[in-house]
Amino acid sequence: MAIDSALSSPLGPPAYEKDAKALQFIEEMTRNAGSVQERVLAEILTQNSQTEYLGRFELNGATDRETFKSKLPVITYEDLQPEIQRIANGDRSPILSAHPISEFLTSSGTSAGERKLMPTIKEELDRRQLLYSLLMPVMNLFVPGLDKGRGLYFLFVKSETRTPGGLLARPVLTSYYKSDHFKTRPYDPYNVYTSPNEAILCPDSFQSMYSQMLCGLLERHQVLRVGAVFASGLLRAIRFLQLNWEQLAQDIETGSLNKKITDPSLRECMAKILKANPELAKFVRQECSQDSWEGIITRIWPNTKYLDVIVTGAMAQYIPTLDYYSGGLPLACTMYASSECYFGLNLNPMCKPSDVSYTIMPNMAYFEFLTHEPNSAGFTCDSPPKLVDLVDLEVGKEYELVITTYAGLCRYRVGDILRVTGFHNSAPQFHFVRRKNVLLSIDSDKTDEAELQKAVANASQLLREFNTSVVEYTSYADSKTIPGHYVIYWELLVKDSANSPSDEVLKQCCLTMEESLNSVYRQGRVADNSIGPLEIRVVKSGTFEELMDYAISRGASINQYKVPRCVKFTPIMELLDSRVVSSHFSPALPHWTPERRR
Ligand code: AMP
After folding, report:
1. Nearest to 215 by CA among 248, 185, 243
2. Does residue 326 register a pLDDT over 90?
3. 479 in ligand 1 pocket by Cβ < 6 Å?
4. Which of 186, 234, 326, 349 could tie 228 with a disulfide, CB 3.0–4.6 Å?
5. Best substitution site from 435, 520, 523, 528 to test ligand 1's pocket, by max atoms within 8 Å of Cβ?
6. Is 338 in the pocket of ligand 1 (CB under 6 A)?
7. pLDDT tens-digit readout, 273-298
8. Which pLDDT value is given to residue 11?
9. DSSP reduced 3-state for 120
10. Predicted pLDDT of residue 598
11. How far is the CA of 531 from the centre of ligand 1 (A)?
12. Whose CA is nearest to atom 16 of ligand 1?
């Protein structure tokens, strides 16, 4: 194919002519990152100049960076809570944004145990769509021939609610999949999914997963890439296959759909796709009944070139398991996004997970960066933070991301810590280091130290009548089980050994802890089945002293030693596990409903 050489870019000449525009856009944005950022800030401040929020800071029409930085405070979600509550309660005046708030996006980050509500406006959908439209042109540079088959992607919608004032509140991906942008997307031969929209949009997670898996099996030779948003989602799909392959094989053998699929539009759609194929059914049975599931992904989908899942940040824990199931297929992390704002993409998506760097696209929002001192607690009013602009960052340094969005978040701390690894043109590229204050995470749940402390305190109330208390505890996110689960190590002080708490009581302690954890955790347990039952492992008395001895032998200061509330280091976990005297699992699901508790 003839491609105009003027369109070639440092990303490499477009693999296909249709990709030239997207690659050129990336080049333009990254080459002019400074001026694009200046323009974006001016646009946001002009658009929102009459809002109540900006009005408070007397910008007097100024849209330049210096005035903005000198007048607006850096804030967190909690600072905005009163405004967000008013919008949720139905106040339609321009509080944060001049454009009407179209809905709330429910973040997996929580505040007081409930998902944060992120106000958004209609035009943000276009911005998200734009970022999505850049992903395949970049991927096509690295993986040829993706138009010769399909992608098996496990994509889901989650439940939605309405705020007291009537606005929808739902996760950003649910909002996107339900939008016309997604539902009526133009046909792109390089980006065809095996899952029909009806399967993705089915609100029942079993029916949705079942039909998506069935379509994937039916088209197994067509599948060129397998993916989900996060690594945990893809592993959940593999687990689903382990549990349901017999029924799936039966459907394929007979050509008649499992009766548990009751959604009429899904049944109608699947009727057109499902045809009896006894040979394929035999193959599925043969592969899935083997004792070992090593390499199952490439056995079932032999033409898979890569897995498309995010394995950066907390998801890195799943890399060994994905390697096991896929025989070490490349793992592509394509984008970095949040409910607040979609940030950017990976311009080298076939690199090793440890080398992944995301390039923030300067047109998405106005970005600032708070220098992150790895061991400092934060900043005080006496020492106002120094925020650095996108183009002024230094390679090798760590920063916390602060955003100003078209939807009305101003100098808002996202909570992500990023390290600059280099530049693409004048746009920096980032290694995702971690999210602040996250102790435990299995899926999209994020449990912090205070939440864990509260959960332990609530559960240990049940031990009172046994004259028993929790002397020390720590935790661990066990991602070897599928789904993964939280493990809490407890050292108990049992004062009356004749009346020590039974297995039944300790199981109830597990459930009480689960009840105390935030709604994203409980939704993962109840609705998504993405988190397994919480486990308490009781360790011998004296174990935590041994833990301290071990830390001190490795150089920790005796005076400053604190029990780590989460452990990841293998020798420490081996020490803990070797001292376990009993283990107890939560016997039931905690409560969860889509409605917010407050
Ligand atoms: P949410 O607001 O629930 O959509 O979660 C957004 C958060 O997920 C981000 O702020 C990050 O902490 C995390 N996240 C999103 N994309 C990535 C990625 N590619 N790598 C690592 N973490 C990510």
Report:
1. 248
2. yes
3. no
4. 234
5. 435
6. yes
7. 999 999 999 999 999 999 999 999 99
8. 87
9. strand
10. 58
11. 18
12. 336
Q: Which of 104, 158, 310, 333 for a ligand 1 pocket mutation test, highest count of atoms within 8 Å of Cβ?
A: 310
CA proximity to 402, closest of 112, 35, 31, 41: 41
Per-residue H/E/C for 298-324: HHHCCCCCEEEEECCHHHHHHHHHHHH
Give the Cβ contact number of residue 157 at 10 Å.
Answer: 20
**Does the pLDDT value for residue 6 go beyond 50?**
no
Residue 557 in 3-state DSSP? Answer: coil
Ligand 1 contact via 131 beta carbon (within 6 Å): no
> Which ligand 1 atom sits closest to the C-alpha of 333?
19
Domain ranges of the chain: 144-304, 438-585
CB atoms within 10 A of CB 236: 24
**Which of 105, 34, 40 has the alpha carbon at shortest distance from 410?**
40
In the three-class reduction of DSSP (H, G, I as helix; E, B as strand; rest coil), residue 103 is classed as strand
- What are 143's two structure tokens? 């993986």
* Residue nearest atom 8 of ligand 1, based on CA coordinates: 338
Closest of 176, 258, 182, 177 to residue 217, by C-alpha: 258
DSSP assigned state of 497: G
Render the burial of 126-148: b for 16+ CB within 10 Å, e for the rest. ebbeebbbbbbbbbbbbbeebee
Angle between helices 278-288 and 205-218 (to 10 degrees): 110
Determine if ligand 1 sits within 6 Å of the CB of residue 109.
yes
Q: How far is ligand 1, taken at its centre, from the CA of residue 249, in Å?
A: 36
Task: Please give the number of the atom of ligand 1 that sits closest to the Cα of 358.
Answer: 19
For ligand 1, is residue 414 a contact (CB within 6 Å)?
A: yes
> Residue length, the chain?
598
Could you tell me if 330 and 354 are in contact, meaning their C-beta atoms sit under 8 angstroms apart? no
Backbone torsions φ then ψ of 96, nearest 5 degrees: -110, -30
* The token pair that represents 367 in the structure block: 């970005």
Q: Which 3-state string (H, E, C) describes 369-388? A: EEECCCCCCCCCCCCCCCEE
314 CA → ligand 1 middle, Å: 9
